[in-house]
Amino acid sequence: MKILKFGGTSVGSPERMTKLLDIIDPNEEQIVVLSAVSGTTNSLVEISNYFLAGDKKNGSTAVENLYQKYKDFVIELLPAADFQEMGNEVIDYHFSFLAVLTNDIFTSIEEKVVLAQGELLSTTLYHIYLKSIGIESVLLPALDFMKTDEDNEPDIPFTTKHLTSLLEEHKDNKLFITQGYICRNSFGEVDNLRRGGSDYTASLLGAAILAEEVQIWTDIDGMHNNDPRIVKGTRPIARLSFDEAAELAYFGAKILHPQSVFPAQKYKIPVRLLNTMEPSAAGTLITHDSEKGKIKSIAAKDGITAIRIQSSRMLLAYGFLRRVFEVFERYKTPIDMITTSEVAVSLTIDETAHLPQIIEELESFGTVEVDTNHSIVCVVGDFGSEKHGFASRVLEGLKHIPIRMISYGGSNYNVSLLILSEYKTEALRSLHNRLFE
């Protein structure tokens, strides 16, 4: 069985939704994971924010506006009267639920339920569409088998048990539809996966049932060797290892969330990144293997803050770095890069919600300097210790740009450099010319 995930743009209009059958083969065993229709989640976030703020008037208006969009969506997707009636019953059910929330106390629990409505709508409407054209499918409620544990981590054994049972109940069927992103938490409440959303769902399902492969369908033909929005002449990468894909995803390649790689990697499930608009394109295949002796791609991550802690107490001291890292751990703030000298440590973060408290605690160790508006440029490829010449080519490509930090040797797959964000575009283009032209 294969897992096929389609993002919001792939189901963003009735026309696009109907064209999914150019890709989905009803005669093959497949679980199709759908995101919400593009724009829906943003609207639901807006609705939730109004309700959380107690602004019931604007909240109700936002609900009505989204409802009218779905009324138009159903008319176009389901022109036959009987199926259009079924579609209208679905959206009436979901939007009447949203409307009722104006009369209730609205908390973060209700917010999670509101955010789940987008995927519930898209999957149910697509299931009805397939029925309207005579194609058999089974709608599998993700809330019946997607669950997180007490640490908010996916419970894969739970998914394996309950999803396998549902598939066994429908063993004569081949095509299954389910929701991405949504799940239940350890208390049984409606929740969501946050990190990676529907991509994460697809990877978790692939791991849970040991699928043949996971396919992530988006609006671009795989991971490119640079950012196509900034650099001309980029090209898709045919093959990547899981580690290379995770590095690229973490450092700026928006096509895939880094968290989505790990379940497939652990259970050795191949992942393909493919283009809904160009189904015949080869895309990118992610497996444990990769081409050796090559630089694969360049990515950049913005919104980086650099922190330098300088202290004579570091000299010949043990435990100093542990105490520094414990500060970030207390405030649940991940660190991206780190470099050290005998008397100073520099590191970067991209979450600054607790920056004032972090700085206050770090000042007990020594002098603290903070620099904002930086970007991490990450070059991914085969940087194993036996390789030579690649790092010098990277530095040669940036010889005219001030570099704040360099991280090399942390893995065999990347060289990361911290620069001011104003130099990012020039850095990406210069590296591309140096490494790929």
Automatic annotation (TrEMBL):
Instruction: Describe the reaction catalysed, as an equation.
Output: L-aspartate + ATP = 4-phospho-L-aspartate + ADP
Q: Write out the GO MF terms.
A: aspartate kinase activity; ATP binding
According to its UniProt record, the EC number is: 2.7.2.4
Task: Look up keyword Protease and say if it applies.
Answer: no
Q: What class of enzyme is it?
A: transferase
Ranges where the Aspartate/glutamate/uridylate kinase domain occurs:
2-275
The UniProt record gives the binding positions of ATP as K5, F6, G7, G8, T218, D219, R229
Record bears the keyword Ion transport: no
Q: Which SUPFAM superfamilies does its entry note?
A: ACT-like, Carbamate kinase-like
Q: Which biological process annotations from GO are given for this protein?
A: homoserine biosynthetic process; lysine biosynthetic process via diaminopimelate; threonine biosynthetic process
Q: Belongs to which family?
A: Belongs to the aspartokinase family.
What is this protein's name? Aspartokinase
Organism encoding this protein? Pedobacter alluvionis
